[in-house]
Recover the amino acids of this structure.
C-alpha cells in the first residue's frame, strides 16, 4: 500500500475510485449546465472540461475533447491518447504535484461532489451486441429448457454465440424500467395471450466499449483485438423470459430484450484493470485458429454482485456473487468473432458479455437460474418471496477488483421496475 501512488484528494480504502482507476463518465451539474467529461476520484468528479479550458490535457492545439456530451470524440483520438491523458491526470492529481494541489481557485472549479451531479450515458452507442459466453449460464439454461445431458448446443463451444441487440434502449444507471408487455404462450393453450410480462428478469453482465473501429470487410485479428477496446462497464440486460420463450424461434430474442438495458455511468479503462489480469477457463475443443489466444492472461478477476431491494425494504439483499473470470470466451474472442465475416464495429459500440454465472447457486446471474424457473422461490430478508422481479423492485449491480491494497471498482448500475403500461384493446 505504501508504495502506491496517492492523490492529494483523500480517497478511503473502500472507495472504488482511487487515483489508479480514474474511470471516464459524462456528468452535468446544476439545472442548465451542459453535460461534459469527468473522471471519478474518491467521492469527487474531476471536471476535465475545466482542466482542458485552463490549458491542461491538450491533445491537439485549438481542439476541445472534454466539453462534449459523450466520450466519443475523445475515444476516437486513439489508444495513445487514452494513455497520455490518463498519465497526465495521474500526475496532475498526485500528492507530489503542487500545480493543481496548491491552486485553490482552480480546485474549486475542477472538483464536484458525485452526490451533486447527474450522470448521463457515457457514450453515444451506435450498436449494441449481446453474447452468451458464460458456460455455467448456458449450461443452466440448457438444463432447464432442453436436456441436462446435452445442455450445450454443439456450436456453443466452437464460437461466442451472440445476437445484435437494440442500442436505442440502452439507458444509464438510475433510469426506471417499465415492465414490458407482449405475447405469452402458455403450454396448455393453443394461442398466445397479450399480457404484461410475468417473468421479468435481470442479467448480471459486464459490457465493453469499442474504442477503435474497423472498416467494413476488414476483420480484426485476435492479436489486435485488445487494442480495439476502450474499457468496461457493468451491464444489466433486462429480460422478459415469457416473451422470449415464445418469440425467439428461429431468429433469437426480439422484444424480450429490447425494452431496456442498463449501463453503469463510469467506463473503467483496460489500463486500470491491468493489475487484475487472470486466466480464462481451459477451452476444449481448442478453438479454430482465428479465435485462438493465450488463455493465461486474457481475463480479469472482477468480483460482481447483484442486489434486490423491494419497495418496502430500506436495505437491499445480496442475491448473487459471481466473477468475470468465469467467462469462457474472452472479450478479444468475442470482438474478433464479431468482425470475422466483415462486420464493421464503430467507436462507442457496446458488447455485452452475456449473463455471468458461477459454479454454485449463490453465484447465478439471473432470477431464472437463482429460482430455477420458479421452482425454488427466493425469500427476501423482509419475508417476501420472489420468483421473478416485481413492480417496485430495484436491482443493483456492483463490481470491483481488489488485491495488495489496491481496489479498482465500477460503482454500480441500478434500475427500478415500474408497472406495465395499461392497454385497452377491443376484440
Ligand atoms: Mn444478455
Amino acid at each position: 500500500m505504501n508504495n502506491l501512488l496517492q492523490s492529494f484528494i483523500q480517497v478511503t480504502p473502500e472507495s472504488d475510485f482511487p487515483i489508479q482507476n480514474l474511470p471516464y463518465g459524462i456528468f452535468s451539474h446544476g439545472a442548465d449546465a451542459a453535460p461534459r467529461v469527468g473522471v471519478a476520484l474518491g467521492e469527487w468528479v474531476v471536471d476535465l472540461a475545466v482542466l482542458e479550458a485552463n490549458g491542461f490535457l491538450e491533445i491537439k492545439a485549438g481542439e476541445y475533447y472534454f466539453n462534449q456530451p459523450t466520450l466519443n470524440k475523445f475515444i476516437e483520438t486513439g489508444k495513445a491518447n487514452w494513455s497520455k491523458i490518463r498519465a497526465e491526470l495521474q500526475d496532475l492529481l498526485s500528492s507530489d504535484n503542487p500545480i493543481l494541489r496548491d491552486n485553490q481557485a482552480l480546485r474549486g472549479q475542477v472538483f464536484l461532489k458525485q452526490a451533486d451531479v447527474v450522470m448521463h450515458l457515457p457514450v453515444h452507442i451506435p450498436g449494441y451486441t449481446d453474447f452468451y459466453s458464460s458456460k455455467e449460464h448456458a449450461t443452466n439454461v440448457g438444463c432447464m429448457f432442453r436436456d441436462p445431458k446435452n445442455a450445450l448446443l454443439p456450436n456453443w463451444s466452437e464460437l461466442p454465440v451472440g445476437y445484435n441487440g437494440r442500442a436505442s434502449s440502452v439507458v444509464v444507471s438510475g433510469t426506471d424500467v417499465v415492465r414490458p408487455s407482449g405475447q405469452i404462450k402458455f403450454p396448455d393453450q393453443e394461442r398466445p395471450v397479450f399480457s404484461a410480462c410475468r417473468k421479468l428478469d435481470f442479467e448480471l453482465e459486464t459490457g465493453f466499449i469499442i474504442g477503435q473501429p474497423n472498416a467494413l470487410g476488414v476483420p480484426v485479428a485476435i492479436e489486435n483485438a485488445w487494442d480495439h477496446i476502450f474499457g468496461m462497464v457493468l451491464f444489466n440486460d433486462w429480460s422478459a423470459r415469457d416473451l422470449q420463450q415464445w418469440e425467439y424461434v428461429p431468429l433469437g430474442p426480439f422484444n424480450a430484450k429490447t425494452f431496456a438495458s442498463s449501463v453503469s455511468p463510469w467506463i473503467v479503462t483496460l489500463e486500470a484493470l491491468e493489475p487484475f489480469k487472470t486466466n480464462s477457463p481451459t477451452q476444449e475443443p481448442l478453438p479454430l485458429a482465428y479465435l485462438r489466444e493465450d488463455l493465461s492472461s486474457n481475463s480479469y478477476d472482477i468480483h460482481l454482485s447483484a442486489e434486490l431491494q423491494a419497495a418496502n425494504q430500506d436495505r437491499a439483499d445480496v442475491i448473487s456473487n459471481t466473477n468475470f473470470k468465469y467467462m469462457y470466451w474472452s472479450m478479444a474472442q468475442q470482438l474478433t468473432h464479431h468482425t470475422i465475416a466483415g462486420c464493421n464495429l464503430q467507436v462507442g459500440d457496446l458488447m455485452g458479455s452475456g449473463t455471468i454465472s458461477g459454479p454454485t447457486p449463490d453465484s447465478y446471474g439471473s432470477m431464472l437460474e437463482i429460482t430455477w424457473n420458479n421452482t425454488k422461490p427466493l425469500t427476501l430478508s423482509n419475508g417476501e418471496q420472489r420468483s421473478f422481479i416485481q413492480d417496485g423492485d430495484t436491482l443493483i449491480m456492483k463490481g470491483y477488483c481488489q488485491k495488495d491494497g489496491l481496489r479498482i471498482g465500477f460503482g454500480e448500475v441500478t434500475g427500478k421496475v415500474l408497472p406495465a403500461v395499461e392497454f385497452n384493446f377491443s376484440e
DSSP finds eleven helices and 26 strands in the chain. The mean pLDDT is 97.
